[in-house]
Design a protein that fits this description.
Radius of gyration: 20 Å
Structural class: alpha/beta
Strand content: 25-35%
Helix content: 10-25%
Order of helices and strands: EEEHEEEEEEHHEHEHEHEEEHEHE
Number of helices: 8
Bound molecules: NADP nicotinamide-adenine-dinucleotide phosphate, zinc ion
Length: 349
């Protein structure tokens, strides 16, 4: 049993996104039916629509920064009721029994988590469709509670951009006294500055864009380093306990490695794919430096981040767009011209 919902989809890797009727499953006993209010536009949506990662199943309905209100619940749902303000991020299911799933790390499910879009559902095989849509049906365990005190439309980007940088900040125990650097001031980057600062760290931004410095300070950065300026790069040698690299494309890591402190880690969250510039271990052995990677965060950790944002009044800096403007938004995102997250008002669908 399925029903149709108004959505916007990429039909192939080059045409503009266009209207699409997505088939959603009828409510299962443990499902939550959500009327979508807002959906953030992640750079991953652009990568997937263009098939940059090579695993597109068209048509793709992107969107994994979803905030909405509960419209109905299945008979076994215990934690949500009609009218609750809820969120859905990058995943909607996982196996539930592997080592990762039983340790609240569903994003690393050994059988592969079910992504919010562009993945067959693990129970009925129906393709998943994301948040560029009027409604979504999600199993209760993958639905997040959204604090009511925050600006609802600016909460949406926390569901991917927020958790993707929160998870490494927590994993590497960032707190007062830590020094954190963020590479790239976009959706993930601006949330990394805000969250690292709120955890008590001293925060530096590495950016290619001199015109973003004022914004970086406003967002909470203590220092801005122009990554194209060698003298500025040299001035921050041996500094950082953690560097969060959000750059979406292949780039040279060598200039960043000497800026790590003893036992420091550069964690790659931006690039999904191959590094083309070789890495030189001579830059890593002194200082026992690490390069790591990280993917979104678990459900429990996502709830922790949302609650933390509720307590500290943290949301994303958003530019609201209509559904019909999504193709222009993608073009601007490719140029790095986003301040600092587009959010679609789903009432315009
Ligand atoms: P975004 O808003 O477009 O921001 C990316 C920023 O990176 C840009 O604003 C720019 O900042 C910098 N940048 C862009 N192109 C660059 C280039 N060629 N060289 C150097 N710097 C460049 O993107 P986003 O939504 O934050 O997403 C960033 C990446 O994270 C995407 O690839 C996305 O797919 C990925 N992602 C991964 C996860 C995960 O779980 N690991 C989750 C979500 C997203 P400056 O102008 O300041 O240099
Ligand atoms: Zn995302």
């Amino acid at each position: 049993m399925t029903f149709q919902v108004k959505s916007f989809a990429a039909y192939n890797n080059h045409s503009p996104l266009a209207p699409f009727l997505a088939q959603r499953r009828a409510l299962r006993p443990n499902d939550v039916d959500i009327e979508i209010l807002y959906c953030g536009v992640c750079h991953s949506d652009l990568h997937q629509a263009r098939n940059d990662w090579g695993w597109a199943n068209y048509p793709i309905v992107p969107g994994h920064e979803i905030v909405g209100r509960v419209k109905a619940v299945g008979e076994q749902v215990a934690r949500f009721k009609v009218g609750d303000l809820v969120g859905v991020g990058c995943m909607v299911d996982s196996c539930g029994h592997c080592h990762a799933c039983t340790h609240h790390l569903e994003q690393y499910c050994e059988e592969g988590m079910t992504q919010t879009y562009n993945t067959p559902d693990r129970r009925d095989g129906l393709m998943t469709y994301g948040g560029y849509s009027e409604r979504i049906i999600v199993t209760e365990n993958f639905v997040l509670r959204v604090p009511e005190n925050l600006d609802t439309k600016a909460v949406a980007p926390l569901l991917c951009a927020g958790i993707t940088v929160w998870s490494p900040l927590r994993h590497w125990n960032i707190s007062k006294g830590s020094k954190v650097a963020v590479v790239g001031l976009g959706g993930l980057g601006h949330m990394a500055i805000k969250l690292a600062k709120a955890l008590g760290a001293e925060v530096t931004l590495f950016s290619r864009s001199p015109n973003k410095a004022a914004d970086a300070y406003r967002l909470g950065a203590d220092k801005v380093v122009l990554s194209t300026d060698d003298a500025q790069m040299q001035s921050v040698t041996n500094q950082f306990n953690l560097i969060i690299d959000t750059v979406p494309y292949t780039h040279d890591l060598k200039p960043y490695l000497p800026t790590l402190a003893l036992d420091g880690t550069l964690v790659m969250v931006g690039l999904v794919g191959e590094l083309e510039e070789p890495i030189n271990t001579v830059l890593m052995q002194p200082g026992r430096r690490s390069i790591a990677a990280s993917m979104i965060g678990g459900i429990q950790e996502t709830q922790e981040m949302l609650d933390f944002c509720g307590e500290h009044g943290i949301v994303s800096d958003v530019e609201m767009i209509d559904m019909q403007s999504i193709n222009d938004a993608f073009v601007r995102m490719e140029k790095g011209d986003v301040k600092y997250r587009f959010v679609i008002d789903m009432a315009t669908l």
